[in-house]
Amino acid sequence: MNKYVVRFVGFIGVIFTIGFIFSETLLIGAYRILVHDDPLVNSEAIVVLAGSHTGNRIKEAAKLYHDGHGKKIVFSGFELYPDTNTSTLMKNYALKLGVPEKDIIAEISGGEVSTRGESVSNLEILKKNQIKNFILVTSAFHTRRAKLIYEKTNSLLGHGFKCLVHPANDPLVPIDEWWRMRTGQKAIFLEYVKSIAYYFNL
Q1: Per the domain annotation, does 50 fall within a domain?
Q2: Whole-model pTM?
Q3: Does residue 29 sit within a domain?
Q4: 182-202: pLDDT as tens digits
């Protein structure tokens, strides 16, 4: 890893330590930096990112669907175990939440297992289904990086999609006390590391 990245990661660790000792406000601020939330506009589809095990992203997407903010829900997952993939599991949960099967598009991603790889798969699915605008749903702490990645992929592939990003609250990474939970500490730290890697194109 680039030595400057290592130093920056260490710096972030020091900031987290200081924040933990001295200020909850600083820690909440460290979380908010990672969040992006666009004003909602009714769209043709709602794209849900894989990666959360709490169902929070699918719950939020189903709510948006039932509120009339999207006509279709799109899942592009990856193989979890032999003959088991996340897109099917996500689809099954969406069905339990009352989303009709006819309004669910679920496919297996053929690319790398990452937000970047998933962005390529999702945008190709949208293109194939002639969808031009969508709401991207992911966990709140993941929204800012997801927005940057989708904007870059959209531009590189020349699709011209209009994308809005909407956060889903994660019970394992709550904004007001993420530092009190091991799952929260790990998620926020890794998100900062991945954000740094993104900016260095790693």
Answers
A1: yes
A2: 0.87
A3: yes
A4: 999 999 999 999 999 898 887
